[in-house]
Specification:
By secondary structure, the protein is an alpha+beta fold. It is built from 25 helices and 18 strands. The chain has a four-stranded antiparallel sheet with strand order 15-5-17-16.
């Protein structure tokens, strides 16, 4: 039998079998190699890799969040800088470290806690109520699906638990606060003169100097890889503006959706919390209740509940605002708190109310009645909802047609635009980051795919948020290059002139400072140069009569004694150089410090101390871990 197999495993049959085996292993090996090549690691935390794709998604979310927060003040160039990208990578590494620590510490957040977080956060509310549509919109805007967004929220809440545990012991003594108050309220005499730079345009710059500067700094002038795009867009917002509206349709919609325009009764209150930990003993419970009763008696005696809350409440979230809850409806607060508030009259003060957080003293401030709002009162809102509903129907109908049209004409967006009755728009030359900012990271990545970047084909349709789809096509490309010297010469000359003007002003200032330090009278020194000597006595840190940069330098100087003086210089952002004399240190006596102000300072200082303690914890955690960062892969 075996001999028969050996005889047959010869010649063509054997060759075919060997060939098939070789192909199998070759294909497996190539696939393994390609998969390995596609995995680009930018950092590793204790052997746990952070891939480039994860970094890019996180970086883009950070950028979008900054753009939303800063509005018109947002500067895209800041986010293109290498140091910003490194900071984003460092943040991602720290986040991974903290997540691993939280897992080892077995920190857990329940489904109910996650749900309560989403329900109570204003970010997901419309007209004071949780909105599923708003939730989806925010998640999509940040680049998450709903489930992924919930997972991220759970991680954030776990890290909040960790942070709360780390900073719980942060405190400052009365002595430290008093010393801080003295430092903050100290006064100084500040005298200074400003040496203005010469007109930069009058400074001669030789061609050889320009060439040398160019040779040293030309890499800083390298341009980015940029492309100009055609793009076709299907947008819910655009469809909304095109919906035809008439009063009859609005009235019909209003009548059919009155529940959407029904306002729940809401109540606004102030409260004081005496915290009671989980598993507290009966003695602890009694002590907490008695303390709550004493605080209530302070309010009854005439002290405002706001002041008592600021001084004594254990609710960190509302303490600074005097225990204000803001308006809330039913289903928002814990049941015991809600039941008490909705049973009260305006101005009424409750007895101690026990919840899972401890004992509350509550005073009802105002009631906002509920009911169906008249059409005239909510006309704009009805129209907005009507437009949205009609536009959504059209959007879902047209989305499939959009995909089919783009795929049918991959080399031209005009054909798809004509079929869909849309307009092809254009962008100026933009970098990868610029495109990510205008659309999202997925669009920017698609542009740099070979078939789109170099072959002239349109990208596949890409979702930009939940209700916006685009397809893009490259129509012009400007590859990175270092401009020639002649292209930059005018700019280089201006830069050199400005730098030299600043240097000359600083050098002149240093000469004057040297004379003052040798004992010459400051007034005489500056008058010899036709400069003005400004003297400001008893200046505080927030004084508006002194140049801000000069003031910072003056209070950064060390004055060991009240009769000490110091001379120093500081370069200003305007190009001027200031020479200054700082003297006559004074600070308030401890017995003169206002106790109310001290309490506020203590709360602020403890917040700062908590932030420092948290930062120290992260740094220590990082030092104990094996962290590798591969910034060249960014």
């Amino acid at each position: 039998m075996l001999q028969s197999i050996r005889d047959r495993a010869q010649g063509v049959i054997a060759a075919v079998i060997v060939l098939l085996l070789c192909l199998t292993f070759a294909i497996w090996g190539i696939e393994s190699y390609l998969n390995s090549a596609r995995k680009v690691v930018v950092a590793a935390v204790d052997g746990d890799d952070i891939e480039l794709k994860e970094y890019q998604s996180a970086y883009q979310r950070m950028r979008q969040r900054a753009q939303a927060e800063q509005g018109e003040a947002f500067d895209p160039k800041v986010w293109e800088a290498p140091e910003t990208k490194l900071k984003a990578l460092d943040y991602l590494v720290e986040d991974r470290l903290l997540q691993r620590y939280a897992e080892r510490a077995r920190l857990r957040v329940s489904d109910a806690q996650v749900a309560e977080y989403f329900k109570s956060s204003p970010n997901f509310q419309v007209d004071g109520k949780f909105s599923p549509a708003r939730f989806k919109e925010v998640a999509s805007m940040l680049g998450f699906g709903e489930r992924a967004f919930e997972r991220e929220a759970r991680k954030d809440l776990e890290l909040q638990q960790l942070r709360a545990g780390v900073v719980a012991s942060s405190f400052l003594t009365i002595g430290e606060i008093q010393a801080l108050q003295q430092l903050r309220d100290q006064k100084r005499t500040v005298a200074y003169a400003l040496i203005a730079p010469v007109d930069p345009s009058k400074i001669a710059v030789a061609d050889a100097d320009v060439a040398a500067y160019y040779a040293e700094h030309k890499e800083a002038y390298r341009t980015k890889d940029k492309v100009a795009l055609q793009f076709l867009e299907l947008s819910l917002d655009k469809l909304k503006t095109e919906i035809q509206v008439d009063e009859k349709s609005l009235k019909t919609y209003y009548d059919a959706h009155q529940a959407d325009f029904t306002v729940e009764e809401q109540r606004d209150a102030n409260h004081i919390l005496v915290k009671l930990g989980t598993g507290a003993s009966a003695a602890d419970d009694t002590a907490a209740k008695e303390k709550a009763q004493r605080l209530r008696e302070m309010v009854v005696a005439g002290k405002s509940i706001e002041d008592v809350a600021k001084e004594h409440s254990d609710d960190i979230g509302s303490r600074a605002e005097g225990g204000a809850t803001g308006y809330f409806g039913k289903g928002v607060m814990v049941p015991e708190f809600e039941q008490a508030v909705f049973a009260m009259k305006v101005g009424e003060l409750s007895e101690p109310v026990k919840t899972k957080f401890g004992y509350h003293i509550i005073k009802l401030k105002e009631i906002r009645p509920g009911g169906v709002s008249p059409l005239a009162e909510v006309h704009a809102k009805v129209e907005e909802k009507y437009r949205l509903e009609q536009a959504q129907e059209q959007f879902f109908e047209k989305a499939e047609a959009f995909n089919d049209a783009v795929y049918a004409h991959p080399d031209s967006l005009e054909a798809a635009a004509e079929k869909l009755d849309l307009k092809v728009d254009k962008t100026p030359l933009q970098s990868h980051d610029d495109i990510g900012a205008q659309f999202n990271a997925a669009v920017a990545d698609a542009v740099w795919q070979p078939e789109v970047l170099t072959e002239g084909l349109a990208s596949a349709p890409i979702e930009v948020g939940q209700n916006r789809i685009v397809a893009v096509r490259v129509v012009q490309r400007e590859q990175p290059r270092i401009p020639e010297l002649q292209e930059l010469k005018k700019s280089l000359v201006s830069t050199i002139q400005t730098e030299r003007a600043k240097t000359q002003a600083s050098a002149s200032g240093e000469v004057l400072l040297a004379r003052m330090k040798k004992g010459e009278a400051p007034e005489a020194v500056v008058s010899s140069q036709q400069l003005k000597w400004d003297i400001h006595k008893d200046v505080g840190r927030e004084d508006t009569g002194v140049n801000r940069a000069v003031l910072r330098a003056a209070f950064g100087a060390s004055l060991p004694k009240a009769d000490s003086q110091v001379f120093l210089g500081v370069a200003l952002g305007t190009g001027s150089f200031a020479v200054l004399q700082v003297s006559n240190l004074s600070k308030p006596a401890i017995e003169q410090i206002d106790k109310t102000t001290t309490r506020g300072l203590r709360r602020d200082a403890e917040r700062v101390r908590a932030a420092i303690d948290w930062r120290d914890f992260v740094v220590a955690l990082k030092a104990r871990s094996k962290v590798e960062m591969f910034s060249k892969n960014l």
